[in-house]
Every structure is written in C-alpha cells, then in structure tokens.
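seq:
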Amino acid sequence: VKAALEDTTDDDIVPISNVKGEILRKVLDYCEFAVGEGKTKTEEEKKKWEEEYLRLDHPTLFQLILAANFLNCQSLLDLTCKNVADQIRQKTPEQIRAHFNIKNDFTPEEEEEVRRENAWCE
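struct:
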C-alpha cells in the first residue's frame, strides 16, 4: 500500500482490487491494534487479542493470508500462517484433509509412493 501511495496525490483513488472490503477491515483492525493499543499491552494480553482476532472460518482466514501477502503486511502474514501451522501440527494427512475439507486427489498407488518417498520425515 505504501508503494502504491507514493505515486498519488490526496485526491487519487488507490484500487485494492485483490482484497474484499470485509478482509481489508480485518487487516486495518490488526494494523490499528499493532501500532496503537497493542504497543501498551503485555505479551499475554497481545496473545489473547490475537487468539480472539484469529477466530475465523477457514475461507476468511485464507483470504486474510492472501491480503496480508498482497499488502506486504509481514507481521500479519506471519501471525496468520502460524495459526494455520498450529492447526495442522501433529495431524495426519487424512486429519488435515478433513479439517480443511480438502479432497484427496491421489490414487492409492500415488499416495503410497509419496509415503515411501517421504518416509524419512515421519
């Protein structure tokens, strides 16, 4: 956003077509907290705020990740990606598919091959 604003005047409109209004509002809520109220909070209070902030359905969470990436908001991108990582930690591929409603498009043979190739990481 900063880069887009550098080449504008006060009357120019800056389109952010890749981000829906409701998601942009969530990004702004995070930014306002980070530069305002969040600066005076303890780590525990920040963590509580972040947990409440991230109580989102999966589609909204993934839209927020895309928006943070598109808008180059690194701290929000880190927070949201960590949230997804925490959701999949210690889960099997089947549990992850169920959690995020992901269709398994591997044949049993392909799945077995992937398991063999990646046996080292289990």
